[in-house]
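Researcher: We are triaging several targets before committing to wet-lab work. For this one, the compound of interest is S-adenosylmethionine. I'm pasting the protein sequence and the ligand SMILES. What I need is the predicted three-dimensional arrangement of the protein with the ligand bound, expressed as C-alpha cells, so it can go straight into our comparison scripts without reformatting.
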Amino acid sequence: MDAEAWDERYAAAALVWSAEPNRFVAQECADLPPGRAVDLAAGEGRNAIWLARRGWQVTAVDFSAVALDKGARLAGETEVEWVAGDATEWRSAESVDLAVIAYLQLPAAQRRAASRHAVESLRPGGTFLLVAHDSTNLAEGTGGPQDPTVLMTAEDVLADLDGIEVDVVRAGRVAREVVVGDDHRGEAAATAWDCLVRLTRR
Ligand SMILES: C[S@@+](CC[C@H](N)C(=O)[O-])C[C@H]1O[C@@H](n2cnc3c(N)ncnc32)[C@H](O)[C@@H]1O
C-alpha cells in the first residue's frame, strides 16, 4: 500500500488501530528508562503517545499525513514530534535511545532499509524493538495482511541487520490472543502470530 492508500484507510475510520499501545511494545518498553525515541511507521501514534506519556521525547514518523493528523489530535496535550516521511529513507539527525517499528508491512528490500536505518539511529546500548505479523500467521493464525511478501520472521529481521553489531535480547514468534467476530457464529477467541525482535546496538 502506498501513502495515498494508507491515507484513504485512515480517513475511513475514526481509529483504525487502538488508542492503547500495542501489548508487546508496552511490555518490552516498560522497563526502559525514558530518553529519546523514534517510532517509525507510527500510524495514529498509539505507541508514540504511550511512550511520550511515560516521559520519552518521541519522534513519530509515517508517510500518511492523515494518520499523523489523527495522532496529533489523539495526543492532545502530550508532546510528540510528528514527522511526515518515508520509513525506508528516514535518517535521524541525532542518535536515539529507542527505535520502535510496529507492524510495518513492506516487501523485504524496503523492510531491510527501514530496519537498518532504525538500528543505525541508535546510540551504543540503545534498544531496537520490531513487532510485526509473522509469516506463519497466514497458515496458523488469524487476521493481518494476507500478502506473504509483507510478512516476516524474526530470523528475516536479524538477517536484515547483517554487519551491524547488536546484542539480541529476544527474537522469535509471539502469540497475540484476539477476539474475532463472525456474523454467523458470534465472537470467538483466536491466536494471531507476531514476530518480535528486541536487541541493543553495540
Ligand atoms: C499497520 S500500520 C501500523 C501503525 C503503528 N505502527 C501501530 O502499530 O499502530 C502500518 C503503518 O505503516 C505506515 N507505512 C507503510 N509504509 C511506510 C513507509 N514506506 N514509510 C512510512 N510509513 C509507512 C502506514 O502509513 C501505516 O501507518
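Researcher: Any quick observations?
Model: The mean pLDDT is 95.
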